[in-house]
Amino acid sequence: MSENEINERKLQILKAIISDYVSTGEPVGSRTLARKYNLGISPATIRNEMSDLEEMGFLEQPHTSAGRIPSSKGYRIYVDRLMPAEKKDPSFIPVIQNQILNLAAFEIDKIIRGTSQILSELTNMAIIASTPSARKVGIRTIQLVSLGSHNLMVVIVLDNSQVRNTVIRTEEMPHPGDLLMLSNLLTMKLSRLSVEQINIGILDSVRKDLSGYRTLFASVLSAVYEALTKDEDEFIVEGKSNILNFPEFNSIEKAKEIFLTLENPDELMENFEKSLGEGEDDSFRIFIGDETDITDNKDLSIISAKYQLNGEDVGTINLLGPKRLDYSKVTTILTQVVEELNKKLSNLSKEDEDG
Q1: What pLDDT digit, counting tens, does each position of 83-117 carry?
Q2: How far apart are CA 274 and CA 301, in angstroms?
Q3: Alpha-carbon distance 51 to 275, whole Å?
């Protein structure tokens, strides 16, 4: 029997098992279901249906004569077809808004870190958040600063208030007035453009205006590109100790494995991105246990959402926890927090334009 052929009764039994297991953490038996849930069928019928669900791969039996627990496949069909849509709590939104609004203005990395801390407190899960890639963020200003007779610092301030700088060597240092003129010209020509948007036509226009400084222009351009493309992936990790609150990870061996994973977020997130199939909507993703090869840990699930700056996806916030989660509650919290984060970043951009 395929997943699409599973009948309504089996779905309701699976839903009840997952609800009970998420709540208690204990394997669920047929008598428990009959007593606690109004399924309208006998324990014997429930037992037969549970056996079918186990054969179909939706349930697992951790010990002989014990009840069943959901498998990764069981959680997947629950998330995709059975999970109740939890209503947003109107009283909850101002709490999120106030916390996010109070985060550091004009420093996007601190805003993402603060948001991650908020999510860690609200969900009791570990958080991995990626900071915006400098490739996709517009340039605000470029400033050339003399560091002696042959060294020139190129300082790039981005629209998200990140600052990148690098030092280049020049055989002949321009006069201070010329450096100011060159800085203003580069800022005027490249302002609001990301490194991905700077095309040949724009470069030719700048090169013509800097006809007397072509060698310097080539060095500055190379420096800008290097500064905005190196160390592209940076991750913030919050709430690592929350993992210890889950019984699934309370053994020393499993806790060590999870902590090592959180100590190397680059590798985890690289595997996470590779696991997404082509053409899938990746704005919100849930990966459950052993349905992917993200990690060797088959008890780990990841819930991920993208956040935006100026209408563009610039990073992700990822919640890490065991398969046994209240997915409805957690996804609702993540959705609400990301919505408020996007508003914060949108207002940040507008304030910057007004300034």
Answers
A1: 887 777 666 677 777 777 666 555 777 888 889 99
A2: 16
A3: 31
